């Protein structure tokens, strides 16, 4: 267990250590029943006082995350309520337990499970039947037939030039004027986030992000030893008054935001806030990472110009997911940035994997060159909007009182809240018994999680299973909320 | 400029700082003419004495890497000999210069250039005409036609199960018995190295690796703040007596090795040494990373059993490159490991990119299922061996006295040395004038580089260009070595 302490951050050291250990326990990096270091040895390892460690362990115990056994030591608490199959039982390599790692949190990994044979509300993906597979299959055939050497070629580390040029044109339609020299092709936007984190963030750096936000982004920045400062939102997105104070107190190096149909809440950052956010970043010399996975999927009106579209001084690193709404099997994302920030990210990409596969880059090209693209996006918007309406209607009719949700104006998810004394991690256990999966809200918070939310994807399940799935989910939720009070204030994290 | 100091390493702090700055200058991360911090401010930033910084700057000046200008400060030295086009002239984003990064070295990135329209001896790749593109193109067509949903599906983050099962069978032929549950699919072995580094290595950790070695591996471990300890080799690979001392003095956390046709030297680690290496790792609880990019390409006899094949206690993380000899356009690699080391690497893969594209994983499958695979490998071995013979013959006839090389018994490269008073970085400048590229040996060393070597790839150039290319290269080398002595002891790094 390697714990990074940032002595310059305006966050108390005991809180930093508490969050680090709590994150590991919650995400399963520390397994149930695992031995924790003694107070004395942890204090020595971290160069802190015994009292600080005692306080941390007291808090962990209070939060029901650990237990102390007289004469034996301190252990990660065994929670019988957690499904035994989730635990990693295989372990014949004892020496490995002492190998320290730099992986404080993998919340998203814990929920990134199987896509098959279940009622899948957990992944933010789109039903395969809604995507242009047949068309693309034929186009890939003709592309490879014309130029089979695509299979035997490494593309440039920065990405295929033809793809980057095509993307410039595509982005122009979304009010983004970017040179193909300033585009880097990534393996999905997740790699874009990882590249930014590994290049610019390390222990001692503060990252501000919406709370709640995309769990794998938290995981990635935390793995770099960053301190995360949460940014509360209202209906227009990040509250700028709050961000202003955050800038003054914590001096963040980077702000990570999902301005369009935010993941998980669905909130859109208003045009005015985008301008204010950029101005604050400029004043305080903060890098903005603008993650844009599904802005094309608006149900009402197109979202405002991307922040990158307003950026003239290279403050914004823009990440565009391409494959989610088109070809998930290709895992293509784009990163757009300027100046030395961009050059350093390209160098990092070389260190990371020498460049994305040429096959997947060439595979997605035909769609962008054809008129079919706009048609597809139009149809997809329509289909997702119908699904959203259907699901909201079902929730209205079948969810018990006290359950609330934000009706999304775009994107792939609905953010639901149950009364605050209930814990959706516990609801998830009940759902899994019926083969239903969703993303528990706790995974979407960086520090002390709010536990009474959940993210419900409505776009992945086949059309004919959607209604049945939602009805089942409502039924379980109803039963759960009317169940014995023993499950309230639950200890499951 | 972010400099990581490891106060626990047995390497003097001034040497650590010197190497960090020298690496940045050599790999272009610090550009020529760039301002370095003053002695006072660097000392303050790093919490070290003024005298230490003065010593570092003295050494950097002695090595001709920096220059001090009275009344103005300290600058990265301008070297007129370096090709002006290589410099990054574009820079309108001044504020970005003060953004610290975690990218101390990108030597490989500096040489990972274009593959097109040049005499390319720099990349370790295989000529497209030698790869089974036509066959694979047809197979991909039939795979996608049968199952177009491959395009719209995310595979599991660990990698497609069908591919992992197929790989188990393939590895078995190479004396490796691994479960498909213990295999992770990566974007080439480069990502495997990066995953290991980001999961287990951080500032304060020591990594031992062959000297010289694969430059992008050095870059990746250095980017994690690791201290690199070089391991000298003889004809049988890593010298175990030396490694033993390294283990005692530096207590490395990880040993990175390329046992088969080592990159860049072509040396094979003997069976006996493999056993000794593993035993040393076990005694000292050191992780071994065994990188195996091209063991199938033996010209004489099959290399010994992989170290992973001898490993019963989960000490070895095995990285297998698959695409280089088959389908570079797919960028597929495998990582095999056991126990919690493996589980943590899978969690890291999720944080990094949520998994490799399904399309490329499904694309390479048909070849492994067909008899064609063995035929292809057999033919490829034969073709590369012929090329090697041809190139060695040409070098014998046309290289001037004093130039030596190791005749490889497999792999894709020849390691050449010129007399030690010459610098191959300078030879590279001469070669580039004729559009010839090779990898300068200096990139392959982690600390103070030996400058009189180079890596010559003999497998990428089309057959009909190979002879002409080598002859041109010999001619330039001859002229270079007979040129004015001013270029000896050259300052170009």
Automatic annotation (TrEMBL), chains A, B:
Keywords per UniProt: Aminotransferase, DNA-binding, Pyridoxal phosphate, Transcription, Transcription regulation, Transferase
The protein's required cofactors: pyridoxal 5'-phosphate
Transmembrane regions: none
Origin superkingdom: Bacteria
Pfam families in the cross-refs: Aminotran_1_2, GntR
Residues covered by the HTH gntR-type domain: 11-79
GO molecular function term, any single one: transaminase activity
Similarity annotation: In the C-terminal section; belongs to the class-I pyridoxal-phosphate-dependent aminotransferase family. Belongs to the class-I pyridoxal-phosphate-dependent aminotransferase family.
Assembly mode: Homodimer.
Name of the molecule in the record: GntR family transcriptional regulator
Organism listed in the record: Robertmurraya siralis
């Amino acid at each position: 267990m390697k714990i990074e302490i940032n002595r310059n951050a305006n966050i108390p050291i005991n809180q930093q250590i508490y969050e680090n250990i709590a994150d590991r326990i919650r995400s399963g990096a520390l397994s149930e029943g695992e031995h924790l270091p003694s107070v004395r040895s942890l204090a020595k390892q971290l160069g802190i006082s015994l009292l600080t460690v005692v306080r941390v362990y007291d808090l962990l115990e209070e939060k029901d995350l650990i237990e102390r056994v007289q004469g034996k030591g301190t252990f990660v608490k065994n929670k019988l309520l957690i499904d035994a199959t989730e635990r990693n039982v295989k372990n014949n390599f004892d020496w490995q337990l002492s190998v320290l790692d730099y992986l404080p949190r993998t919340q998203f990994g814990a929920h990134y499970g199987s896509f098959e044979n279940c009622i899948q509300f957990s992944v933010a993906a789109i039903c395969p039947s809604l995507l242009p597979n047949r068309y693309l299959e034929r186009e890939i055939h003709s592309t490879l037939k014309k130029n089979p050497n695509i299979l035997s070629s490494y593309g440039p580390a920065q990405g295929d030039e033809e793809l980057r040029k095509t993307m410039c044109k595509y982005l122009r339609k979304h009010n983004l004027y970017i040179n193909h020299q300033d585009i880097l092709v990534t393996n999905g936007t997740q790699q874009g986030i990882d590249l930014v984190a590994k290049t610019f963030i390390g222990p001692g750096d503060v990252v501000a992000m919406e709370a709640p936000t995309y769990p794998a982004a938290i995981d990635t920045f935390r793995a770099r030893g960053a301190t995360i400062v949460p940014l509360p939102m209202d209906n227009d997105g990040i509250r700028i008054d709050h961000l202003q104070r955050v800038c003054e107190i914590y001096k963040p190096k980077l702000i990570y935001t999902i301005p369009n149909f935010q993941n998980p809440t669905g909130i859109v950052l208003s045009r005015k806030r985008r301008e204010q956010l950029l101005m604050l970043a400029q004043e305080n010399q903060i890098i903005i990472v603008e993650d844009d996975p599904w802005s094309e999927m608006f149900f009402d009106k197109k979202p405002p110009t991307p922040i990158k579209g307003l950026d003239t001084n290279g403050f914004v690193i823009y990440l565009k997911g391409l494959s989610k709404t088109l070809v998930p099997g290709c895992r293509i994302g784009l990163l757009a940035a300027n100046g030395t920030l961009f050059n350093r990210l390209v160098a990092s990409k070389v260190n990371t994997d020498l460049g994305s596969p040429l096959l997947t880059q060439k595979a997605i090209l035909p769609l962008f060159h054809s008129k079919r693209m706009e048609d597809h996006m139009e149809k997809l918007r329509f289909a997702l909007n119908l699904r959203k309406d259907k699901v909201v209607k079902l929730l209205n009719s079948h969810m018990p009182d006290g359950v609330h949700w934000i009706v999304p104006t775009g994107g792939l998810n609905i953010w639901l809240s149950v009364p605050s004394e209930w814990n959706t991690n516990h609801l998830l256990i009940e759902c899994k018994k019926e083969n239903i999966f969703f993303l528990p809200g706790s995974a979407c918070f960086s520090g002390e999680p709010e536990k009474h939310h959940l993210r419900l994807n409505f776009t992945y399940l086949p059309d004919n299973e959607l209604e049945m799935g939602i009805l089942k989910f409502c039924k379980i939720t109803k039963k759960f909320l009317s169940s014995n009070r023993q499950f309230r204030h639950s200890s499951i994290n």
